[in-house]
Amino acid sequence: MASDRTIRIHAPAKVNLVLRVLDRRPDGYHNLWSLMQTVDVTDTLDVRAMPGRPGIHLTCDDASLPTDRRNLIYRAAEAVLKRAGSAIGRDAGLAITIAKRIPVSAGLGGGSSNAAATIVALNELLALRWSPTDMMKVGAPLGSDVPFFFCAPSAVVTGRGEAVEAVTLTGCRWIVLVNPGFPIETKWAYEQLSSRRASVAPLADSLRRIVGGATASWDQIVPLMENDFEAAVGPAHPELAKVAQALREAGAEAAMLSGSGATVFGVFRDEAAALRAQRMLSGTQGWRVLAGAAGTGPLACISKA
Ligand code: C5P
Questions:
Q1: Stated pTM of the model
Q2: Known catalytic residue: 4?
């Protein structure tokens, strides 16, 4: 039976420090090799049981987002309730509110992070006692980036995104996210990539060595940053290269597209450098600029009265 608490959970953004898109698989998806990293720029979810009101009642402070089955939060809650059977009680429903801060359709995994956070919150609210592996299994069918968020803050992701192994990055960095204000659809980005390249470059040995359980320093990783989508979506969106250049001029050690875009992120040595860059770039019309430390703890519930 559900408790009457409200569970609050912060769902972080992610960036891909490395994103190699490898061969196309028989199921139409591509095999990936990615080094993913959470960023402390978060959405906030509040989840509570509603006695006497069956169903999933989702509200969002961003009116442009759907609150029905098209929203991954809704689908994640539905998947949990299906698997958990009568855990919530026959006549009860769920109220979920989401305060959005992560740009949408932006390469930052916001929808996937929200889905993973929903599963963690319901695991707590409904006292399901699912392990991270159980939760990952429920989340994986919802989207390719969902499993990663159960392995935060840093992980190597392979397969179509479902094979996730945590790694340790030593040292600290801050990330500045610049969203240029237009969405890029992931499916379109993959199509661009497939149609533009004749062959797939093999995975570099330096990346092959980074496996689950490995430890690497930020100093080692920054020179290895690359994203196959840059060459694929760059020609259609010349503004992306301008954003990366602006980040470098504002002091970023490296700047690159995240996921299939359109957010470009810069890596900074410390908070002061990141906040300075955020101030410099915030004035550009149409750009949304957010800053946060690289890395967050694992998805964790905060109980509200
Ligand atoms: O799983 P997700 O909804 O993020 O994927 C969106 C689309 O991106 C898929 O329909 C597929 O065309 C493409 N994709 C892919 N290989 C992956 C992940 C996504 O081709 N590993």
A1: 0.94
A2: no
